[in-house]
Description:
Shape: globular
Radius of gyration: 16 Å
Order of helices and strands: HHHEHEHEHHEHEHHEE
Strand content: 15-25%
Bound molecules: the ligand O=C(NC/C=C/[C@H]1O[C@@H](n2cnc3c(NCCO)ncnc32)[C@H](O)[C@@H]1O)c1cc(-c2ccc(F)cc2)cc(O)c1O, magnesium ion
Amino acid sequence: TRSTRPKRLLRAVQKNATRGDPLSVISAIDHFCRHSEWAMNVGDEKGSILDSVVSELNPNTSLELGTYCGYSTVRIARLLPPGARLITLEFNPDYAAVARQVISWAGVQDKVELVEGPSGDLIPQMKERFGVETFDFVFLDHWKDRYLPDTNLLEECGLLRKGAVLLADNVICPGTPEYLAYIRNSPRYESRYFQSHLEYTKVEDGLEKSVFLG
Length: 214
Ligand SMILES: O=C(NC/C=C/[C@H]1O[C@@H](n2cnc3c(NCCO)ncnc32)[C@H](O)[C@@H]1O)c1cc(-c2ccc(F)cc2)cc(O)c1O
Ligand SMILES: [Mg+2]
């Protein structure tokens, strides 16, 4: 079947990374994206900021919107304490199939639940179907015009714990203007911008970290 960029990325992981070694999977993907084909992973520079937010928070229950090839899924999952879990949502079955293999190559599959489907349908099912009480951490990296509606959905479904952290990728490039305007002006959030660069480039981009105040 036709080769796609995610499939070529997966082949690079299987060729260059060591099974069960998440760091080797992360660096194999970063190398592939720098030297072979750019891909929309959060990347190493913004990835280090993601790592520090996750390590400081030590979240028990995390949500990722937009798995793509599983790069940030692996970055987050490798830092989670035993018993903690990450639910990641991906509605493209081809991307989901690649991500499942990247996640298991890294050996973090026991901490990750990849659910195929659109976030708009799945978020309201988190409590009943997935036994989630509230999320401690949410990483937003899916369609940029869906950050705000999905944040409102998480609020409406009572899925954010007081003190929960939302970390949004690409708030500059491609940009998420409606989301930024909302989250920076809402009295229910305390936000901070972490300046960085678009993955594998010198273009400015950054992450917005927002604490839900309840
Ligand atoms: O567009 C970007 N990301 C989108 C990610 C989409 C992934 O998430 C999945 N997805 C989307 N919506 C939903 C959904 N729910 C919503 C729909 O129901 N529910 C579940 N899964 C969903 C897709 O299937 C993909 O797997 C981006 C672009 C650049 C970029 C910058 C500069 C450039 F020049 C070019 C590109 C850089 C980045 O870091 C970026 O993240
Ligand atoms: Mg992104």
